[in-house]
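Run log // design_07
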């Protein structure tokens, strides 16, 4: 079982990296800015950052599980946080961005990998392959650190470059007050999903204990 789990996670990490690579290569022909600016803008998307973080964590956990980073990547709280990040990226895409964004060709394939395949496959990993009874309600608060850092980065980067990765974060179009409100709503969504995962973790731990008892 351990061997199957390792292979599954290696393949999932490679899938996420392939989705990032395909998406990056697909935007090159239509880029109207320098390669450096294009790359900086590309890696300013939450989808790209969360999928990259997931892929690196999976690879590090499997290749160097006893290192400090490997132990951190293997923690149930870390795995749960990564699920929330890629999950929110997929949910926002489906509910908010899909009707306004119509990619084609390889760009469409990259979007499908990052917004659909990776979140669903990693959710299966969390459900069937992760430990239970290791999460606390306080974890949901800690999981807000990455989205908070991303929000701060987006505001600073956008102020300097005038590039905002998402329309609901575009200060130039909708104003700072509306952007801050949207960020607060997203933070609430992260918090609610974190609470749901913590609840499911506790329920799963109890069910496992009852079966063993």
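design_07 sequence
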């Amino acid at each position: 079982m351990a061997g199957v789990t390792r292979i599954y996670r290696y393949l999932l990490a490679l899938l996420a990296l392939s989705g990032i690579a395909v998406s990056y290569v697909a935007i090159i022909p239509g880029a109207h800015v320098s390669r450096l600016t294009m790359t900086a803008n590309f890696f300013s998307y939450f989808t790209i950052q969360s999928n990259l973080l997931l892929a690196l964590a999976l690879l590090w956990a499997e290749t160097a599980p006893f290192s400090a980073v490997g132990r951190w990547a293997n923690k149930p709280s870390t795995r749960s946080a990564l699920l929330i990040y890629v999950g929110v990226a997929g949910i926002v895409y489906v509910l908010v961005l899909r009707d306004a964004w119509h990619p084609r060709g390889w760009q469409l394939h990259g979007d499908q990998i990052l917004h659909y395949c990776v979140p669903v496959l990693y959710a299966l990993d969390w459900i069937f392959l992760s430990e239970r009874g290791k999460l606390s309600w306080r974890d949901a608060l800690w999981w807000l650190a990455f989205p908070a850092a991303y929000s701060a980065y987006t505001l600073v980067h956008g102020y300097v470059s005038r590039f905002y990765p998402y329309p609901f974060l575009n200060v130039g179009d909708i104003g700072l007050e509306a952007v801050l409100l949207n960020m607060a709503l997203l933070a609430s969504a992260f918090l609610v999903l974190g609470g749901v995962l913590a609840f499911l973790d506790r329920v799963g731990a109890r069910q496992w204990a009852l079966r063993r008892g």
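The radius of gyration is 18 Å.
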